[in-house]
UniProtKB/TrEMBL annotation:
<feature type="transmembrane region" description="Helical">
    <location>
        <begin position="46"/>
        <end position="64"/>
    </location>
</feature>
<feature type="transmembrane region" description="Helical">
    <location>
        <begin position="123"/>
        <end position="142"/>
    </location>
</feature>
<dbReference type="InterPro" id="IPR058533">
    <property type="entry name" value="Cation_efflux_TM"/>
</dbReference>
<feature type="domain" description="Cation efflux protein transmembrane">
    <location>
        <begin position="29"/>
        <end position="222"/>
    </location>
</feature>
<keyword id="KW-0472">Membrane</keyword>
<comment type="similarity">
    <text>Belongs to the cation diffusion facilitator (CDF) transporter (TC 2.A.4) family.</text>
</comment>
<dbReference type="InterPro" id="IPR027469">
    <property type="entry name" value="Cation_efflux_TMD_sf"/>
</dbReference>
<dbReference type="GO" id="GO:0016020">
    <property type="term" value="C:membrane"/>
</dbReference>
<feature type="transmembrane region" description="Helical">
    <location>
        <begin position="85"/>
        <end position="103"/>
    </location>
</feature>
<dbReference type="InterPro" id="IPR002524">
    <property type="entry name" value="Cation_efflux"/>
</dbReference>
<keyword id="KW-0812">Transmembrane</keyword>
<dbReference type="Pfam" id="PF01545">
    <property type="entry name" value="Cation_efflux"/>
</dbReference>
<keyword id="KW-0813">Transport</keyword>
<keyword id="KW-1133">Transmembrane helix</keyword>
<dbReference type="InterPro" id="IPR050291">
    <property type="entry name" value="CDF_Transporter"/>
</dbReference>
<feature type="transmembrane region" description="Helical">
    <location>
        <begin position="177"/>
        <end position="194"/>
    </location>
</feature>
<dbReference type="GO" id="GO:0008324">
    <property type="term" value="F:monoatomic cation transmembrane transporter activity"/>
</dbReference>
Length: 308
C-alpha cells in the first residue's frame, strides 16, 4: 500500500499542482485582504478565514509526500494513514478558529462597537475606503471559487478527504465574501451592527465545517467503516464490497475499515477461503485500487488475535 496505485498517479500529480497553485493564489488573497482590512470586523474575519485556507493545502502536500514512503521499523505498516491524520489536524484548526471568530464577533456586538470607514486617497483620487474593501472581498471570492471547482473532481477520483474538504471550503468562500460585502455596505448605510453580525455569521459556517470534518476524521482513525467524502455516512463503496463478500462467504462476519484512501476487509470465520474472486469481481464498478487488503481469520480466532 505504500506505493500509489498506477490508476491514480495522474490525479495525484494534478492534485499536488492545484495545491501549489492554492498556496500561491490564497497567499495573494491574504495580502490583498490584509492591506484592505481597515477596522472592519467582517473584513478581519474573512481575512483570517482566507489565511486558514492555506492549512488544508499545506497538510495535503505534506501528507502526499509522506504517504508513498516505505515502511520502517517504527512504522511497519507504512504511512498511508497520514492522510487521515492531516484531515483531522486541518479540521481541528478550522473548528478552533471558528469558535474564536464567533467569540470575537459576538463580543464586538455586545460592546456596541461602531466601526467607521473613512476616505482613502490613491493615485490622486479620494474615495470611500469601503469600495476598496468590497473589491478585495470580490477578489477573495474569485480565486478560491475557481480552485475549488478544479479540485472537486480530482478529490473524488483520489477519494481524498483533505483535498475534498479544501475544495468545499473554497467553493463556499462566496458566502464569506458576500457576508463581508453586506457588512461593509451596512456600515456605509449607517447600520453599525451589520459588520459584526456578518463576522459572526461567517464564523458559524467555519465551525460547522470544522466539527463535521473532525467527526469524520476521528471515525476513520478509530478504524471506523469507510465514510463518504462529504458527510459522516458510510461510503456506498464499502457497503457494496461488504455485500459481495457476504454473498461469497455467507457463513462469515465481514468487516470493512478505512486506511487513508484505501479499504481493508476482514472476513472472520473462514479458515480456508478457497478460490478468492478477482478484485474486479469484488469491487464491481467501483475502482479496484480502493481495496488494498482482504484478511481471513478462522472461526476459533480470539478477539485479541483478530485485532492484531
Amino acid at each position: 500500500m505504500s506505493k500509489l496505485p498506477e490508476e491514480i498517479r495522474g490525479d495525484m500529480r494534478k492534485a499536488k499542482k492545484l495545491e501549489w497553485w492554492t498556496l500561491v493564489g490564497m497567499a495573494s488573497v491574504v495580502v490583498v485582504m490584509y492591506f484592505a482590512m481597515g477596522g472592519s470586523q467582517a473584513m478581519k474575519t474573512a481575512f483570517l478565514e482566507d489565511l486558514l485556507g492555506l492549512v488544508p493545502a499545506a497538510t495535503f502536500l505534506l501528507a502526499a509526500r509522506l504517504e508513498p514512503k516505505e515502511p520502517t521499523e517504527r512504522h511497519p505498516f507504512g504511512f498511508v494513514r497520514v492522510n487521515s491524520l492531516a484531515f483531522l489536524a486541518s479540521a481541528v484548526v478550522l473548528a478552533a478558529m471558528g469558535f474564536w471568530l464567533l467569540y470575537d464577533g459576538v463580543t464586538a456586538l455586545m460592546k456596541g462597537e461602531h466601526p467607521s470607514i473613512g476616505p482613502v486617497t490613491m493615485f490622486g483620487y479620494t474615495f470611500w475606503m469601503g469600495w476598496l474593501m468590497i473589491a478585495a472581498l470580490a477578489y477573495s471570492i474569485i480565486i478560491p471559487t475557481i480552485l475549488g471547482r478544479l479540485k472537486k473532481p480530482v478529490a473524488d477520483n483520489l477519494r481524498d478527504k483533505v483535498l475534498h474538504t479544501d475544495a468545499q471550503m473554497q467553493k463556499a468562500d462566496w458566502q464569506t465574501g458576500l457576508a463581508g460585502i453586506l457588512g461593509i455596505l451596512g456600515i456605509g448605510l449607517g447600520f453599525w451592527w451589520a459588520d459584526s453580525a456578518a463576522a459572526a455569521l461567517i464564523s458559524f459556517s467555519i465551525i460547522a465545517d470544522g466539527l463535521k470534518n473532525a467527526h469524520t476524521a476521528s471515525a476513520e482513525l478509530l478504524d471506523g467503516a469507510p465514510r463518504k467524502l462529504k458527510g459522516s455516512d458510510i461510503s456506498p463503496e464499502a457497503l457494496r464490497l461488504q455485500k459481495r463478500l457476504r454473498n461469497q462467504w455467507p457463513e462469515s462476519t465481514v468487516r470493512v475499515r478505512e486506511s487513508g484512501r484505501y479499504m481493508i476487509a476482514n472476513v472472520h470465520g473462514i479458515g480456508v477461503p478457497g478460490e478468492i474472486p478477482s478484485l474486479k469481481d469484488l469491487m464491481g464498478e467501483d475502482p479496484t485500487w480502493r481495496l488494498a487488503e482482504i484478511n481471513f481469520t478462522p472461526p476459533n480466532c480470539t478477539q485479541e488475535e483478530l485485532r492484531d
